[in-house]
Design a protein that fits this description.
Blueprint lengths: L1 E5 L4 H13 L4 E5 L2 E4 L5 H13 L3 E2 L3 H19 L8 H9 L3 H12 L3 H19 L4 H7 L5 H12 L3 H17 L1
């Protein structure tokens, strides 16, 4: 049986879900971002209690098929951008469609209708968050970051970064250094 859980987007969330399931003597065979598979059957009472306990941790057990599909799309994108060593070589639309076994137009329409933004915009926002993270770690230069995140050029990355954040990547990096030096002065 598969259970879909909203806001389950980190390793810590996965651990919390595992602990909650074990309280009901349910043992996950698969524990992915946003999804848990268990072999045991879950009673309606257990499901209600699990739902209540997960809500206390900021997680939400999903019932609605559309909500489940939206969460699957979001979790696939988050996993692809934040937790994979390399982004897929194919178009994101093909990748998402293939992974979820749905036509991309269908997925895109539902996502836009429910979230009020496009899948592409959601991907861009997460790519920019990843760029910020990589800039803060200071291990890669902008060219390497652009290559890693499949931008066509550093200029394309910089333009998208500025459009989303209002800052250039280099100014963002300077702000980080300035904050760090201010903290050291305390």
């Amino acid at each position: 049986m598969k259970l879909y859980i909203k806001y389950m987007v980190s390793l810590r969330c996965k651990l919390m879900v595992k602990v909650e399931l074990e309280k009901f003597n349910l043992h996950p065979t698969i524990l992915d971002l946003g999804m848990v598979e268990i072999n045991e059957d879950i009673t309606p009472e257990q499901r209600d209690l699990l739902k209540t306990n997960l809500l206390k941790s900021g997680l939400e057990l999903l019932d609605d098929k559309r909500s489940i599909l939206i969460e699957r799309i979001k979790n696939l994108i988050i996993e692809m951008i934040h937790y994979s060593d390399e982004l897929p070589k194919v178009n994101y639309s093909d990748y998402i469609s293939e992974k979820l076994s749905y036509d991309y137009t269908y997925l895109s329409n539902i996502f836009s209708e429910v979230k009020g933004t496009t899948i592409q915009q959601f991907i861009i926002l997460h790519k920019i968050e990843k760029v910020k993270e990589l800039l803060l770690y200071d291990e890669l230069n902008l060219s390497q970051i652009a290559y890693k995140l499949h931008y066509s050029s550093v200029a394309h990355l910089s333009n998208q970064f500025k459009k989303v954040t209002g800052l250039t990547p280099s100014f963002y990096k300077q702000l980080k250094k300035k904050r760090k030096s201010n903290l050291e002065d305390l």
